[in-house]
Amino acid sequence: MPEVTYFHDIQVGQRFPLTIKRLGINGEGIGYYKRTIVFVKGALPDEVIVAEVTATAPKYVNAKIHTLRKKSPQRVEPRDADYYGHVGGIELEHLSYPAQLAFKVDVIRQSLEKFKPRGYQHYKLRPTIGMAEPYEYRDKAQFQVRELNGHVAAGLYQEHSHQLVDLKTFSTQRPATMQVIRYVVALLEELKVPIYNEEQNSGIVKTLVVRESFSTGHLQLTFITNSRKLPHKRELLSRIHTKMPQITSIMQNLNQGRTSLIWGEETFNLAGDDYITETLSGLTFKLSARAFFQLNPAQTAKMYALAREALQLAPHESLVDAYCGVGTIGLSLADTASEVRGMDIVPAAIADAQENANLNHIDNAKYEVGKAEELLPQWLAAGFAPDALVVDPPRTGLDQALLHAILDSRPQKFVYISCNPSTLARDLVRLSEVYAVDYIQSIDMFPQTARVEAVVRLEKRNIYR
């Protein structure tokens, strides 16, 4: 890799020829000009372009493609051509799917090279497990609603802006979720329901959220509103029921005023059930409007099977499920363990986890509200020593206090499920002092994006046995 300079005289608007060497962790093309790293959105490895600088920083510059002189054989036409490059969630749609899967292994490799955990050069990086059909997998749509040019629009914000892009179609979404969004948008316009105006902090309907159950085909629709009042509610509900009887749960969430948060604290039922149900790994889960659930159930089932295979739990062994959410991972493993204990900081998630355990007649799973880094030491002090641990942390990775607790307790079996290669590699720096990495199995939960999940099997080093 060329030596990179930290000072340059490159200016915004400047153009120069550039050969793209690889993709960065966010899916952007990377090249070097005058020993300065150049990030180019939409460019692919081995392409030769004329780059036009859009922003500069002391250590790098950002650029766009002005002219594509030599095209990569892996470049394909984006299926969402009207929206590609404007909204997130499809940033790799211009890259062939086999090349996307290879890139996701390379992203993990890049992160390991940056942080250099012990023995990283010898980690076994397995090929990414992809999907036979890498579209129409997202079972939930969460679209902002605004007025654009006199019409009601629903979609996503343009990247780095609050300019809404009206999404008539979106190829990674389940078709049913898009059908519901488009019908409700037309209905809101026809009935002249007041739409939220961010600048004036007026109007009512802010966001539409639609979730589909893969197993039942039922849908849940949630109106997120600026006030408790929902004009024309009776006709809205009647028309939706007549046109789309598969919507079995209609909820309203109250989120008043200007805020960057999507959800407010209060959710109430407008029609039908309070939840829909989903089946995963042979278990049934109740999904309330705000319940977190993986957006790609087909790949999630594969991921949990990988965790089961990696842990190889024996009937006498106990498992801790840190960051347990609604209990999906731990409950999917409960039949192989003597006891499962899970924790999460969200009380509603813990309530859902316990209810899901009851729903599936699982009586060896226990859930507590609290931080893993606080509860795990308490359990250890009370005499509970887990044989196995599974962690599925947020994108920020493991809390440092939890890292200490893991290194103190040193469970024999340990699986780390990661949604961010950078924080995974950072955490492995500490974990690799005690654990050896057996393998890293990447899995594509979000095709057409730069995101990658990974299941990491760690083995306690012999010196500590």
UniProtKB/TrEMBL annotation:
Positions with a binding annotation for S-adenosyl-L-methionine: Q294, Y323, D344, D392
Transmembrane segment boundaries: none
Domain TRAM: residue ranges: 9-67
Active site: residue positions: C419, C419 (nucleophile)
InterPro entries hit by this protein: MeTrfase_TrmA_AS, MeTrfase_TrmA_CS, NA-bd_OB-fold, SAM-dependent_MTases_sf, TRAM_dom, U5_MeTrfase_fam
Gene Ontology terms describing biological process: rRNA base methylation
Record keywords, A-Z: Methyltransferase, S-adenosyl-L-methionine, Transferase
Keyword Transcription regulation attributed: no
Lineage top rank: taxon: Bacteria
SUPFAM superfamilies assigned: Nucleic acid-binding proteins, S-adenosyl-L-methionine-dependent methyltransferases
Molecular-function GO term, any one: rRNA (uridine-C5-)-methyltransferase activity
Similarity comment: family membership: Belongs to the class I-like SAM-binding methyltransferase superfamily. RNA M5U methyltransferase family.
Protein name per Swiss-Prot or TrEMBL: Putative RNA methyltransferase
Organism: Loigolactobacillus coryniformis subsp. coryniformis CECT 5711
